[in-house]
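Q: I'm writing up a methods section and want to include an example of the input and output format. Could you take the sequence below and give the corresponding predicted structure tokens, formatted cleanly so I can copy it straight into the document?
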Amino acid sequence: MYLLYLDDAGSVGNPEERYFILGGIALFERQVYWLQQDLERITGELSHPEPNNLELRGNAILNRRNFWRRFRPVEARRILRHGIATARSLRGIWALFGAVVDKAEVSPEDPVEYAFEQICNRFDRFLHRRYLNGDPQKGLLIMDQSAKETRLQTLATEFRQTGHRWGTLRNFSDVPMFVDSQASRAVQYADLLAYALYRKFEKGDSECTVMVMT
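A: Here is the clean output for your methods example:
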């Protein structure tokens, strides 16, 4: 099974922000362990008293909040880049996903639901391509806990039963699962990626996204 870990960046209700971002990484189930190990190595090098409990959140790292205040800006950027670059050491098939939504352009649609529909469609197409290559795996979305959990689960069911604007989902094994990001390094990776995309599109800062796009 392929697991797509997702998180968001940007505020839907903030009129000063143009974009809402949904991003993450799709991994074969056995790869999750290796991504987790790479991220644990990063936290283990930061002199935190409980490195296993140190959550990697892009916004907190780059804005140097709480524990991250001890790092200089250049060091915080290095940590964020290092975290995002861990995907490049994964063996096998993996893929990054991102939906960058201009909130004004999709209005009056809900940008969260619009981004979710985009991601679902693209992940389904990814799984279909794997099927055509002799790898008949199903997929599952795993997301950070959200106030929109019930609505997104309902949408996923509708996409499977009655379809979305591009067709019908055929390769999902179940509705999205929601977990506490504190307990999932893979969801934390999705957060780092989503925040890097936010920095690129909202702030014109592409330094961190270069780590996975080259």
